C-alpha cells in the first residue's frame, strides 16, 4: 500500500507545482495524473501484482493490463456495481461467470455473508491465481468457491486465446488484439455443475460466449424464480462467436427475462426488445439487467 500512497502523493505534488508555475488547465494537465500514475505503477510493481483498494475491498491487480485503469484509476462500472449490490440479499447464492480478479465475487461475498455462497468461474490461469489470492486476502474462503473452468453449453475442452496486456481473454480471437498464447481449458455447463440448486443472482461477462452459457443453464434459470441476471451485451464479441445480437436478445426474452440496458453515464435503466438498434460504433457494449417475468 505504501507504493500506492507514494504514487498519489507524487502526482499531486507535480500537478500543484505546474499550476503554481502558471501552467493553465489544459488537456495535457488533465491527462497528466493518469499518465504518471500508469507509468509509476508499472515501474514500481515490476509487473508483479500490487495491492490496492477497489470499492472498499483490498485487491491485488496486475499493473500491466488495460483493465488496471478501470479498477484502479476510476470507479469500475459504478452504476452496474450499485445495482448488483442492491440485488443481493444475505444468504443468497451468486454466480460470477468470468470472475477475472474477483471484483464482483468479493462484493457478492460481502453481501451474502457466511449464510450464502458465491461460485466464481475463471478459466485463465493467471487470473485464477489472483482470484484465489484476493479471496484469501479478504478471508472469504468459506463463502467463495473458485472454479478454474470456463462456462458454456456443455462439457468440453475449449481453446482460450490469452491476450497480451489484458485480463479479458476469449474463446473467439479478436483480430486487433495481440495474442500471447493459446491454451486448452475445461468448459462446463451450469446445469451440470449445480444440479438441482437454485440461484439468486448471476453476473456474466465472458467475451461473446454468453449465449452458449445461457443454453447450458436453462434448467437453472427455469427453477430460479427470483433470479436477477447481469450480463454483458457486446455485439462485436457476439458476432465473433457466431451469434447475432438480435438473436441474443430474443434468447434472453425466451428464457423468461425482462431486459433493461444499464446506462452508466445517465445512471438509468432502459427497457429494450429484440429490435433494439445497436449503435454503429465498433467497440460499443453495455451491461444488461435482466429480471424474471412475473
Tell me about this structure.
This protein is an alpha/beta fold and 294 residues long. The chain is built from 11 helices and 13 strands. The chain starts with a helix and ends with a strand. The N terminus is likely disordered. Strand 4, helix 6 and strand 5 form a beta-alpha-beta unit. The longest helix is centred in the N-terminal third of the chain and has 19 residues. It has an 8-stranded mixed beta sheet with strand order 5-4-3-9-10-13-11-12, with helices on both faces. The protein has a 3-stranded mixed beta sheet with strand order 6-8-7. The radius of gyration is 20 Å and the shape is globular. It has one domain: Rossmann fold, CATH 3.40.50.
Set out the fold topology.
Elements: H1 2-20, H2 27-45, E1 50-54, E2 57-61, H3 67-73, H4 78-87, E3 93-97, H5 103-112, E4 117-121, H6 125-137, E5 144-147, E6 150-151, E7 156-163, E8 179-188, H7 190-194, E9 201-204, H8 210-215, H9 218-223, E10 228-233, H10 235-240, H11 245-254, E11 257-263, E12 268-271, E13 286-292
Parallel strand pairs: 3-4, 3-9, 4-5, 6-8, 9-10
Antiparallel strand pairs: 1-2, 7-8, 10-13, 11-12, 11-13
Using the alpha-carbon principal axes, give the shape: globular
Number of helices, counting only DSSP H or I runs of 4 residues or more: 11
Structural class by helix and strand composition? alpha/beta
N-end to C-end Cα span? 47 Å
Features:
Rossmann fold, single chain, 294 residues, 11 helices, 8-stranded mixed beta sheet, 38% helix, globular, alpha/beta, 3-stranded mixed beta sheet
Amino acid at each position: 500500500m505504501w507504493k500506492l500512497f507514494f504514487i498519489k502523493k507524487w502526482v499531486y505534488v507535480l500537478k500543484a507545482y505546474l499550476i503554481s508555475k502558471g501552467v493553465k488547465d489544459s488537456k495535457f494537465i488533465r491527462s497528466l495524473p493518469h499518465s504518471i500514475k500508469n507509468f509509476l505503477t508499472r515501474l514500481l510493481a515490476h509487473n508483479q501484482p500490487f495491492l490496492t483498494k477497489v470499492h472498499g475491498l483490498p485487491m491485488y491487480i496486475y499493473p500491466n493490463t488495460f483493465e488496471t485503469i478501470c479498477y484502479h484509476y476510476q470507479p469500475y462500472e459504478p452504476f452496474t456495481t450499485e445495482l448488483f449490490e442492491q440485488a443481493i440479499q444475505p444468504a443468497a447464492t451468486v454466480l460470477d461467470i468470468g470472475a477475472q480478479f474477483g471484483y464482483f465475487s468479493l462484493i457478492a461475498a460481502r453481501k451474502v455473508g457466511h449464510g450464502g455462497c458465491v461460485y466464481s468461474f475463471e478459466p485463465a490461469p493467471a487470473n485464477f491465481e489472483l482470484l484465489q489470492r484476493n479471496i484469501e486476502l479478504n478471508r472469504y474462503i468459506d463463502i467463495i468457491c473458485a472454479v478454474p473452468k470456463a462456462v458454456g453449453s456443455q462439457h468440453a475442452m475449449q481453446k482460450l486465446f490469452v491476450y497480451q496486456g489484458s485480463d479479458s481473454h476469449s474463446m473467439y480471437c479478436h483480430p486487433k488484439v495481440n495474442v500471447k498464447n493459446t491454451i486448452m481449458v475445461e468448459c462446463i455447463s451450469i446445469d451440470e455443475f449445480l444440479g438441482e440448486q437454485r440461484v439468486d443472482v448471476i453476473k456474466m461477462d465472458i467475451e461473446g460466449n454468453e449465449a452458449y452459457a445461457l443454453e447450458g443453464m436453462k434448467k437453472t434459470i427455469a427453477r430460479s424464480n427470483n433470479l436477477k441476471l447481469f450480463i454483458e451485451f457486446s455485439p462485436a464479441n457476439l458476432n465473433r462467436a457466431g451469434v447475432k445480437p438480435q438473436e441474443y436478445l430474443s434468447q434472453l426474452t425466451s428464457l423468461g427475462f425482462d431486459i433493461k440496458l444499464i446506462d452508466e453515464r445517465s445512471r438509468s435503466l432502459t427497457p429494450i426488445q429484440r429490435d433494439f438498434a445497436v449503435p454503429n460504433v465498433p467497440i460499443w457494449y453495455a451491461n444488461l439487467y435482466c429480471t424474471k417475468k412475473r
